[in-house]
Amino acid sequence: MDFSHIEERLSAYKPDPEFRDDAVGLQCCQLAFSALKNGDYGVGAILLDPDGAPLIFSQNAVFSDGFCSSGHAEMKLLDLYEASYRSKYEPDELKLVVSLEPCPMCLSRLILSGIGIIKYMVDDAVGGMVNRIDHMPPAWRNLASLQSFYRAHISSDLKLLAKDIAQARMPELRAKLMNERVGQHEFEVVFDNR
Question: Which pTM value belongs to this model?
């Protein structure tokens, strides 16, 4: 599949200093695009230390190394944080920026992790959970109240780029995921893409 139009926009984009998350948002988009080119969902995430410097970079890898159900960018990032940095940095001191609104699995894990601030670049009307956090069980809502969830402060151009990366190949990737569950039976998967 040809993604040259996305790659050109990504290469040409210069962070806008008027938007505090634009530089890290561009890095998330670069990670997301790398995932997309590897045959994975176009999602990238970065964990920032208490001073705002990048600490851990991650990208989706659900399919590229053999199927991995936990290969979401946020899940991989949290695995690295907990294995290597948890003793150095308290989670509530850290910020996470992710290119796409976290799914139910990732949001649950982020809530349990205690990462202080979670910023996402693009809403995911179909699969995102942050905008539905009030539908979680009471114990989860109580834990989530100790954290802050925001839309990243990025330019509209960067937001559109993140959205285009996230949506590229989506029907193909969703069918691939469904086929992982039901075996090698080929069928057409229909999803509501409101």
Answer: 0.93
Half-sphere exposure of residue 41: CA atoms within 13 angstroms, side-chain side = 31
The mean pLDDT of the chain is 94
Tell me the CB-side half-sphere exposure of residue 111, using CA atoms within 13 A: 20
Confidence class for position 194, pLDDT limits 50, 70, 90? very low
**With helix as H, strand as E and coil as C, how does the chain read?**
CCCHHHHHHHHHCCCCCCCCCHHHHHHHHHHHHHHHHCCCCCCEEEEECCCCCEEEEEECCCCECECCCCCCHHHHHHHHHHHHCCCCCCHHHCEEEECCCCCHHHHHHHHHHCCCEEEECCCCCCCCCHHHHHHCCHHHHHHHCCCEEEECCCCHHHHHHHHHHHHCCHHHHHHHHHHHHHCCCCCCCCCCCC
Average pLDDT for 115-124:
98
% of the chain surpassing 90 pLDDT: 89
Q: SS3 sequence, 62-76? A: CCECECCCCCCHHHH
CA distances from residue 71 to 28, 78, 125, 174 in whole angstroms, order as listed: 16, 11, 21, 15
